């Protein structure tokens, strides 16, 4: 069975510092991977996704993630945090060829300190 | 382009009651998925509808049912509500192609259901 693990339920960084949110997946077949962001009282917004091709994926708002098959990881990074980045971040994987249902991790709350 | 909308925003029900949640898909999208997000958890897949037919279901009991209409709006119905049904219910629409795997799902803001 496929699963997604996000290491660290809360991450706190200073404004301008590097953001690193960790995501590991377990899957017996190549996955498709996604990062979503959820702001308070809002739905989820897609930041980026990996399907095939280049393993370094660039997304919106300066975020990027790298698919590392050998490490079964898809960590999300941003070189310099902004106050507006404070939100809940979810890593997700899909394998179903029929529905593309997303399997989400538990989420990581990013706090950005001034 | 209109995004995904959901109604109502908040809802309070008592145990044993029935509830209907509604979702209006993004223009041009023919696929809708419903997710349940309990407090402090990631969303869990309930089911998906593609062109008005159920196209996959997660580990939810039959008292969770759905409909998709010809205009691709959708309903989620939950019968015999239980306390554990309290959650944020999210719908997500996408334009279903032969490769569902990579279709981007666009989420609505959710309906917050509280069961007392």
Write out key terms for the chains shown:
heterodimer, A: 114 residues, mainly beta, 6-stranded mixed sheet, 5-stranded antiparallel sheet, B: 116 residues, 7-stranded mixed sheet, globular
Question: Can you give a write-up of this model?
Answer:
The complex is a heterodimer of chains A (114) and B (116). Chain A is mainly β. Chain A is built from no helices and eleven strands. In chain A, strands 2, 4, 5, 9, 10 and 11 form a six-stranded mixed beta sheet that branches. In chain A, strands 1-3-8-7-6 form a five-stranded antiparallel beta sheet, with no helix packed on it. Chain A is globular and about 45 Å long. The mean pLDDT of chain B is 91. Chain A binds chain B through residues 4, 32, 36, 41-46, 49, 51, 90, 92, 94-107, and chain B through 4, 33, 35, 40-45, 48, 55-56, 58, 90, 92, 94, 99-110.
Brief sketch in words of this structure:
The complex is a heterodimer of chains A (114) and B (116). Chain A is mostly beta strands and 114 residues long.
Structural class given helices, strands, pairing of chain B? mainly beta
Strand content of chain A: over 45%
User: Assembly type of the shown chains?
Assistant: heterodimer
Kindly state the number of beta strands of chain A. Answer: 11
Largest sheet of chain A: 6 strands, mixed
The H/E string of chain A reads: EEEEEEEEEEE
Number of helices of chain B: 0
Please name the two chains that share the biggest interface, counting residues whose Cβ lies under 8 Å from a Cβ on the partner chain.
A-B, 27 and 28 residues
Unreliable stretches covering 5 or more consecutive residues of chain B? none
* Span of the ends, CA to CA of chain B: 37 Å
Helix fraction of chain A, binned, reads under 10%
Mean pLDDT of chain A: 91
Structural class of chain A: mainly beta
Query: If you compute it from the alpha carbons, what radius of gyration of chain A comes out, rounded to the nearest whole angstrom?
Result: 14 Å
Query: Which outline of chain B best applies?
Result: globular
């Amino acid at each position: 069975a496929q699963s997604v693990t996000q290491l660290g339920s809360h991450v706190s960084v200073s404004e301008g510092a590097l953001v690193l949110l960790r995501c590991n997946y377990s899957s017996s077949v190549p996955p498709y991977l996604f990062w979503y962001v959820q702001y308070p009282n809002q739905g989820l917004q897609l930041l980026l996704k990996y399907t095939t091709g280049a393993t370094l994926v660039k997304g919106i708002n300066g975020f990027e993630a790298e698919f590392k098959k050998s490490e079964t990881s898809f960590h999300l990074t941003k070189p310099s945090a902004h106050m507006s980045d404070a939100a809940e971040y979810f890593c997700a994987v899909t394998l179903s060829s029929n529905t593309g249902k997303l399997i989400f991790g538990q989420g990581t709350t990013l706090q950005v300190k001034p | 382009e209109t995004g995904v909308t959901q109604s109502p925003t908040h809802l309070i029900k008592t145990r044993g009651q029935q509830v209907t949640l509604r979702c209006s898909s993004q223009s041009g999208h023919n696929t809708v998925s419903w997710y349940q997000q309990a407090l402090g958890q990631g969303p869990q897949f309930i089911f998906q509808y593609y062109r008005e037919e159920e196209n996959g279901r997660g580990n939810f009991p039959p008292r969770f049912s759905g409909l998709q209409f010809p205009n691709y709006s959708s309903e989620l119905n939950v019968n015999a509500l239980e306390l554990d049904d309290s959650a944020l219910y999210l719908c997500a629409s996408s334009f279903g192609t032969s490769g569902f795997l990579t279709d981007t799902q666009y989420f609505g803001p959710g309906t917050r259901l509280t069961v007392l």
